Amino acid sequence: MATEVPIQTKAQFRYSLVLDYNHQEAQKPKSHLDISKGETLPLSSFDMGGITGSVLLFLFSLISLTDDQHAFTIVASDPEGDPMTFVLSGPNAGYFRVVENTGAVYVRRPLDRESTDRMDFEVTVSDPYNSANPRTITILIGDANDNKPLFDSPSYDKSVPENTAVGTSLFKVTAHDDDFGAARVVKYSIDEVTPNAGASLFTINEINGEVKLNGPLNYTGLSTYYQLKIAATDGGGECYGPFVTHKSFTFSFISVVDVADLDPVFTGTPYIGKVNENSPLGHSVFQVTARDQDIQVNDRMIYSIESSTPDGLFQIAGDTGIISVKSEIDREVTGDIATLTVKATEANPNIHGVQASVTTNVQINIIDKNDNTPKFYKCDDIADKLNCVEQTHFTGEILEHSLGSVPINMMVNDSDQMPQTRLSLGGTNKDVFSVEPQLAMSESIVQILVKEPQKLDFEKIQQMVVEVIAVDGKDDTKKATATVTITIKDINDNSPEFPKDTYMLNVTEHSPDGTVIATITADDPDTMDEGNITYRLLPESILMFFDVEPKTGQVYVKNGELLDREARSLFSVTLQARDTGGKPGSTVLEITVTDINDQAPVMNRDSYLEFVKEGSNFELKIEATDADDPSTVNSEILFSIEPSKYSNNFTIDPNTGVLRNKGELDREALDPKMNGRVELNVTATDKGTPPLSTTVPVIINIEDVNDNKPHFENSSYTFSVKEGEKGAHVGSVYAEDLDQTIDFNRISFSIIDGSFGSFIIRSFADERGFRGDITVDPDIELDYESARKQYKLRVLATDLEQEEAEVMVDVSVLDVNDERPEFKPSGPVTVKENTTITEVVGSFEGIDKDGNHSLVYKLESMKCRCNGSLTPCSNFILDPTGKVRLNLEKTLDYEQCDQVIIEAQVEDEFTEKGENNSATTGILVINIEDINDNAPEFIYSDAVFVVVSESASKGTSVAGVTATDRDSAINRQIEFKVTKVQFVNTDNVTSDMRTPFEAVTTQQKDIYVGIIQTTEPLNLELKGKYLVTVTATDSGGLSTSTKLDIFSIDESFKITLEFTRSEAEVIKDKDEITRALTMATKTSVEIVSIKSGTSRASEITIVMAYFVYPNGTALTDSQVTIMLSDLEYHPILAQLGLKNIGPPPVVEVQTDPVKFVLMGMVGGLVIVLAVLTTSLLVHSQKLTSHYSYGRKLKAAKAMNSASMVTSDNQKSGPVVPGTNKYTMEGANPVLNLNYDTAMVLGLDWGELRCGQSQHMIEEEEEDNGPPEYIEPLGAALAQRGKKKTTGNADMSLSNPAFDTTDL
Q1: Parallel, antiparallel or unpaired: strands 118-126 and 534-538
Q2: What is the pLDDT of residues 1038-1073, one digit of tens each?
Q3: What are residue 449's DSSP bridge partners?
């Protein structure tokens, strides 16, 4: 066995992961390995069985490892010494590369702890003959101090009043650092204050960033503003070696605010205004004005009315000071003058914390108008006019047919000076009355007088209404009307009257006292008699039989015992009524007494007793009489049987009273306890109301006869008995005779056939009937091996009168238990993974040929099929009954094991001799059914996705993702969806946007492919990259998301390639051409068009393509030319037909300078010379911008010569002679980064790179000197030839590559 030894250096960490494949020493595998503790990894396998556990690696600062730099080594051994092959797999395997024959693992892509701090992938080792199971490796990524603090807000501006107290907290700055541990701790400080005189006025808490005022402010004496430069510094930490700290800055602009300290003042005082009474609400009356004496503050004024006399008439606008009418103004109520106290208040508090204010008085004169009309008042006391209230409705009362005035307490008044009011009556009843006075001066009392008393008749009209009309004598349009309701009071001038002269009434004899016979009332139109009429019966002698309620007229029975129809059947009575004035009225009552049923029937006998044998007919006549009048139904009699237990067995004629049996009389049908006695109750009922009845008992004794045979309890009997037992009890038969007397129901048993002398039977009395016990003859021993194993006995049951019954009894001779049990075949069962059911999931079923057995089941073995091989397991429990249940301590996982095979043995506990177990074991196969418990997993791809002008239209595919699901069948079906889209511009600013992409799902075998295509034309003016979040969801709703970078590449980076082959040949070899271009440039090549060109010499094809790095950087024409000039790739590309790179050379016609000389102008000649010079320079540059493929080859050859030359002017790398100096014209507009073809460009521009100096972090705008390679071609070629070392951490932010000039 080997152990893991961590190899640690100052700059970075390395690990060797040793996996021992020693099949000669099987050990239990570990599920987790901590390399930091020096633990070993024991494996349980046979013949390269594979890795079965998982490995945990702590890779601190692994982010410093770049492309093809060593991370750790996987070591395995093979006892046979065969060569081994190492393979990495899983979603995160794309971050690493393993050397297949050595196990050395290299980092392919940068690792960023801020994105993920843990990675899992699987490693598989195999030799040419065996394949090992994969083992999971878990990598924990440590932190490096590679992030600087970032302020949560770009600025912190604040306005502070000059009177702010010292020590007041002004604001709080916050910043965060994405690093871990001490490196993420941020401290704050104030680096600079402008002007410098304010440096001591502010302090900051270095822990929480709270800024406080440390000295007093003065708007006039000191500065009116201050600018604070605030720094945030992290706690520092190692960054792949050196200890570094990072610092960021933000600015705060503090403005000092002036405060108010003077009171306001009114202008234009004193204030006097006027207003007409009855002016409309809101009418402007007057305006007051106040101003703030603090001119610079110039606070807004708020106006209010503090008090007014009278109150509530006026209101003031708080912002303008305009006084307006608030409520109705009546001069007669308010008076001639109103006085207001108006207050002006500053809107904001002054330095003393209060709102300064000032008050002044405003006088408003009220102008009178003639606006009053006559009004009516009700005065309960005419002398007390202060208690009079305005009223328009008055009431009064007067007796019918009377004269005089109607008291209504009315007064009329006109508030105008010297009023003259004319009074008159109106309404339908105005002719019955008159009004006084007809002309009133000022306040006057109004009277209504009766003019026609004969029209005041209560029986015809109870109420009259008149209108009193008051008209202003000076203005007929001003008038008032009051309604007077006069109630006419009634007097007694009518007698009571009954509706009928005679009433015919009936009453039942012997009615209870108080029985109401009828209610009769009289009517009187006089109101005072309503409800006040009294009643009495005449003559006085009738009061011993009947009486009447004096108030209600209700006639009732006074003594019901005296009402006997047989004695007197008719009474004639006078009913008298009197009103309150004693006026009488009367009517006659004829009362007839009716008969009732008061005699019950009488039975002729007190009881009846009869005897009858069962099976015979029974008949008996019941007789009764009734003393009621024979001519009425009261004397008619009906007979009936009262319900009882046996009443339904008999019937009676209701009219004659003859009692008969309904069916055959059977004594055995009766309860034996009754001894044949039946008791009935017969009732005689008359037809009167209510009916009266009498009951008589009838007893019938039913005598027994022998009419039943013995009857066996069962139709047949089956018994068994073991062989060899003399006198053994076989079984019992039961029989019963339903006759109820001992003379007829005693039974004896006998065996009349089938015994062959082997059995005897004895009779015994039993709880119900009799029992016959069958036993083996004491002298006989049954033998199972003889010819008789079955006996059919005929058993006879006989009563004392030889009535008999027969039954068959089957007797089986039993063998002893000596047979082995066997298993019945059982089919496979299915159980879902992860289930926790407690019910039975399957069972074993055994059989035993012995009649008496007890089977128990025992587990022989249990094996699980995991990855195609069977291993012992304990996922299920076998009960002794053969039932198989789930072992809840284990979890069924279809992805680990998909089948369980259980082998069991069955035993017979009742075996008397021989083996008690089965000869062969039973097998139960349990298939584990997959459920959806795994989310989809994306498959890593290093493809680069770009959007160019040719693919920006709607419906164009721009990217793709692939994913798998460990589940099976429908559970592994995946659907892709674009759930979020963001855009990162060239300033590294991220913004959300609507979704211009959609995902189309396809399937290739077990892998699902999501094609990302546009749903609308893309805006090519956007520069940067799209962050597209794609979610993969399986059929059960489990989902996983990944984020794609889709770079927007400008059309200016489109490269033209010229091939000397036909269009069809280029299209055929497109994939091979793409691979060759990718190998030469280390980029992702996006070919957007292939079309035929024009050439006189030969056929050519023009290919348009983009060359893009994984970080979105695109190559220019010149950069592609340099890279394709490499001698390693040139022959391959030449063989594929590549002839030229870039557009054909443009030849410009040179300008003839002679025509400018002919103009004869000196100034024109100067201009012509300048134009010629410029034209020649431009023409020269354009010619040199077209690189022929041969010249690039010459440049490459020159590179070999240049590499041998050294110069003090060179900082590093060879320089090609004759080239121009470096310029920034060719810098990439997307990301201005150094690009080393030996490493993967995946850095985020927003992050700080380790290796960047502190000076560069703080002063990014400063120039840090010339680039490392003065000549860009030399830089590019030198980078391609540079050796990869583990200590190379150069990650500068400048970009001197990808630009060169003509050789």
Answers
A1: unpaired
A2: 999 998 988 888 888 889 999 998 888 899 998 999
A3: 405, 434
